[in-house]
Design goal:
By secondary structure, the protein is an alpha+beta fold. It contains 4 helices and 15 strands. 16% of the residues lie in helices and 22% in strands.
Amino acid sequence: MRFMRIFNDASGRLRILSISAACLALAHCGKTETAAVATPRAGSDWFVDATAQTALPFTHVNGMTGQFFYPEIIAPGVALLDYDNDGDLDVFLVQGGSLDGKAAAGPGGRLYRNDLETRAGGAREVRFTDVTDASGIRTSGYGMGAAVGDYDNDGCVDLYVTALGRNQLFHNKCDGTFEERSAAAAVNDSGWSSPETDRLMKEAAVEVDPKKRAELYHQFQKLTVEAAPIVWVMELNFVTVYDSKFKNLVVSPLGTYSPFNEVYVQT
Ligand SMILES: [Ca+2]
Ligand SMILES: [Ca+2]
């Protein structure tokens, strides 16, 4: 499903339209206030499909398999950032993927460099180039959103990608490439581990002296609080209990979000 289009509006300015972006632009989604509405020039369309013209043929993979999992219907994020500091906005598009291993895996989020050219007379031509591979950005998991900001104040905007699974922080090296620093920055909110904490837990598990055991747990707690904002210290097993007469139930953790449209009772 192609969800996103690049448009030149009636004034010639570049527009990117997606469901989520449109909602953000309105800033009052769900409210009933009346916004001022401009009208297009007579005889001209509001938008012109410029996807092919601008070389931005991105196709989002939502992983749909007919089970109607909740993430399928959430529009993915998009980030506009000037990652190469040349004065024009480049585009990072968040990619989904397979939710249960049945759908094709997505190719990961893509970074498109804006190769804007200004012609003689001031006319501007927008064209994008996929620079993902050269940029070093390698996303994983089912992407949901993206945020940008210069978190280390070095003058180059950085990229944070959220996903079902591990979130990723990509540091902009100011040379057109990025380096993932999720673990170093302690922003990977799952999958964190440390040899030192592993050692403390192993020693505490066999320590018979209550005071020494308490001290080992104290060191473990201090180390994890300093190293990571969120640490899952136990793993939950999801259990679904149901009558065996019910067929076609989705018994994964996502099952509660399914529509039950294919569920039946076998008598
Ligand atoms: Ca740029
Ligand atoms: Ca930076």
